[in-house]
């Protein structure tokens, strides 16, 4: 196991200097799931929850979260995101939030993709909490990250 890059020689928090790295096209994908009761899934499908269109609101919340990641995670770099996608899909036992975030920069966008998935699922939780007391968020994970040299 390597050493932590966000800790300096004295063990203090340290924002990594990425200034020496060349700008590259960076992309990351993440996903997570919220387990829901069948009645809650029905209400979401029929757009019959009092707070409104759960999936659309969650997708917008995830996009906003991707753009604000550096405000939430102290040592995360502020990035110029060129694309943020969040897709919430109803499945048999809940909803899956899938994200894809891109930027041209000197560091990756995996934290933005993970944050987008997390906040999308938390938004679903918030919108459904009045009708479902057994929700469970699980499996928030980074699926892929890539970097490509600029052409």
Mind sketching the topology for me?
Layout: E1 24-35, H1 38-45, H2 54-67, H3 69-72, E2 81-91, E3 94-105, H4 110-128, E4 136-149
Antiparallel strand pairs: 1-3, 1-4, 2-3
Describe this entry's structure for a reader.
The protein is α+β, with helices and mostly antiparallel strands and 151 residues long. The protein has a single domain, classed as Alpha-Beta Plaits (2-Layer Sandwich), CATH 3.30.70.640. The protein has four helices and four strands. It has helices at 38-45, 54-67, 69-72, 110-128, and strands at 24-35, 81-91, 94-105, 136-149. Strands 2-3-1-4 form a four-stranded antiparallel beta sheet. Helix 2 (54-67) packs antiparallel against helix 4 (110-128). The protein is elongated, with a radius of gyration of 17 Å. The two termini are 34 Å apart. The relative contact order is 0.28. The model has no long low-confidence stretch (mean pLDDT 93).
Summarize the structure.
It comes from Marinifilum caeruleilacunae. GO terms for molecular function: cyclic pyranopterin monophosphate synthase activity. The chain is of the alpha+beta class and 151 residues long.
Shape: elongated
- CATH structural architecture: 2-Layer Sandwich
Helix fraction bin: 25-40%
From the 3D structure, determine the CATH topology. Answer: Alpha-Beta Plaits
Taking Cα atoms only, what radius of gyration do you get, to the nearest Å?
17 Å
CATH class label: Alpha Beta
Biggest sheet layout:
4 strands, antiparallel
Strand elements, count: 4
List the strand order in the largest sheet: 2-3-1-4
- Quickly give the structural class: alpha+beta
Query: What fraction strand?
Result: 25-35%
- Summed up, the domain count is 1
Order of helices and strands: EHHHEEHE
The CATH homology group name: Molybdopterin cofactor biosynthesis C (MoaC) domain
Q: Would you tell me the overall average pLDDT?
A: 93
Count, helices: 4
- Rounded to the nearest angstrom, the distance between the terminal CA atoms is 34 Å
Enzyme class: lyase
Organism: Marinifilum caeruleilacunae
GO molecular function, one term: cyclic pyranopterin monophosphate synthase activity
Keywords: Lyase, Molybdenum cofactor biosynthesis
């Amino acid at each position: 196991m390597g050493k932590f890059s966000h800790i300096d020689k004295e063990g203090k928090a340290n924002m990594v200097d990425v200034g020496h790295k060349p700008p590259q096209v960076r992309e990351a994908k993440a996903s997570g799931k919220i387990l829901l009761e069948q009645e809650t899934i029905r209400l979401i499908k029929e757009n019959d929850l009092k707070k409104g269109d759960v999936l659309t609101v969650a997708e917008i919340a995830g996009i906003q979260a991707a753009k604000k990641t550096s405000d939430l995670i102290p040592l995360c770099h502020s990035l110029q995101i060129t694309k943020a996608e969040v897709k919430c899909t109803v499945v048999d036992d809940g909803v899956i939030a899938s994200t894809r975030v891109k930027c041209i920069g000197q560091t990756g966008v995996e934290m933005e993709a993970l944050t987008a998935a997390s906040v999308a699922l938390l938004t679903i939780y918030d919108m459904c909490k009045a009708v479902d007391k057994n929700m469970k968020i699980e499996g928030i994970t980074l699926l892929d990250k890539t970097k490509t040299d600029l052409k």
